[in-house]
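Fig. S4 source data, part A: sequence.
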Amino acid sequence: MLTQILRRLRESFETLNTSEQILVAAAIGSYVCFGLFFAAFSNTFDFGVIYDACRRVMTGDGGQLYAELFSGAARKGIVAYYYPPPAALVLIPFCIFPRACSLAVFQIILEAGLWGFWILWLRTYGSRWTPEQRWRSFALVFLFFPLYYGIWLGQTEILVIVLLLIYLRAPETPRPVAATLALAAAIMFKTFLGILLFHLALLRRWRDLAWTTMWLAALQAASLAVIPLSTQLAYWRFLRQRMGMEAFYDNQSLQGVFERLLTENRFTLGFHWPLGAHLFYVVSAAGILIVYALLMWRVGRQRPWITTFSASIVTALLISPVTETQHLALLLIAFLPVLMDKPSWKWVLLFGFFALFQPYVAFRYDSTERMWFFARGFWNLVYSLPAFALAALWLRLARDMMAPSAEAV
């Protein structure tokens, strides 16, 4: 059996041209180096934060879940637990063992999720793909740096894209109730995905909207058993404040672009006009959201489900107050469909390059003293190259939405 599988893989690999074979080989090497070797020796600092927070909940100290966050940890450069209260219920099983054992279990699950996402995508959308397109999808998934970065940090983005795909691959009419639970869990982990509720409303998918909202309410209610209401209310109030990380090099949302360009702080020496940075962000985010809503309402139901869903995710990443490299792993759901259109491969390579370039620069030279030249004035835009690529992808998807017709994926 194994011999037959290997032979079929070799035969399909030989049908690729030289450049595609190089991409596939690079993807294999990338997974071995980044996905296995580096992941095994990374500090996974964010998982340590998750572990300590969830252990408090396990020991009946849920009121201290956000102790570091409320003390202004972000402003002091300290990583704090940011997940919404219901997320602690789902993350607790990953924290029941000693720290080292829990980390190993969590990383194994992330590795399985990485492969599971690709295989599930092929089974859902790749039945009509040629061997060339399947290999291309393999190259994209296993060359996409934000996925590996999430593993290194010990973040949950891989789990989130699997949950989103579980919802997407369910029968479209009607979608099973369990599929909406997966969507609710994804929104619970990444609150900026709340735009997907708006997405469902604009497409008049009232049943899915009702069930997803009910699941979110149920998860929220269940979390009250272990996390006091006062702590939960304080958390939601806190999110309305500035975090002090808006201008951070790794923030690739619209807010990050304007904060780096128009403020002065420990991350940037831009043109100091904080009010202008806020106004530009609010106006541009509102404009994007309005265009998105109009397109969804007018033509969303006439377009492939995956196209409208992709547009929602890209919109969320653009207008979110903070969009870091690991969050960009969610873009796989938007990138994989463009594999059906070979000329669009250039967009994947463009963003893949910037997604790797930016965090390397940011963390290799992470101070204004080292990067004084690129931290000044308009040179700050160098740090925002991934955000511009993200905006280009949004424009591409908006163009597809406005086209007279759209091909199903």
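Fig. S4 source data, part B ends here. Residues 238-409 form one domain.
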